[in-house]
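Quick one, tokens below. Sequence please?
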């Protein structure tokens, strides 16, 4: 069974053999999905899943994880700017706990500013409002995942 982790070091130990990770930006209506290479160098957007019933969302995520041989999940945690929990934070924590049947470790990763950073970059690149709305969640998931894999890469190795 999978379990939820909040510390990068513990997550790194849980997926010590390496492998591809998936990043999730969990919203109320959509889930942005991203993936990184097995060496944890680069994260990229995959798709945005329109949320329906949780069981259907789980089937979609499970099929993706199996098809892509995912070894762990990084879920963006929407904290308040002061680092405290919000009602949305609690909802995402519950979502992460409910991913346990996938049998993968789940790292909750601070996502403050992720959507804003991605949207700003898209505006700077002169991406239309309609195109931004279509791509923002998957790009935010990639931003979250990239932050996590950058942190994982900077962890001290075994002594």
């Amino acid at each position: 069974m999978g379990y939820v982790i909040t510390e990068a070091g513990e997550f790194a130990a849980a997926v010590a053999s390496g492998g591809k990770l998936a990043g999730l930006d969990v919203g109320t209506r959509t889930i942005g999905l991203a993936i990184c290479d097995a060496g944890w160098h680069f994260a990229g957007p995959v798709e945005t899943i329109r949320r329906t019933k949780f069981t259907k969302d789980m089937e979609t995520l499970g099929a993706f994880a199996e098809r892509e041989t995912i070894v762990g999940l990084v879920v963006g945690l929407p904290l308040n700017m002061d680092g405290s929990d919000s009602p949305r934070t609690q909802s995402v924590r519950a979502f992460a706990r409910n991913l346990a049947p996938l049998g993968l470790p789940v790292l909750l990763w601070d996502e403050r500013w992720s959507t804003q950073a991605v949207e700003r970059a898209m505006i700077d690149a002169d991406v239309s409002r309609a195109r931004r709305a279509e791509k923002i969640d998957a790009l935010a998931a990639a931003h979250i995942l990239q932050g996590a894999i950058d942190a994982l890469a900077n962890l001290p190795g075994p002594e």
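The chain has a mean pLDDT of 87. The helical segments are 8-14, 54-67, 87-97, 114-124, 129-153.
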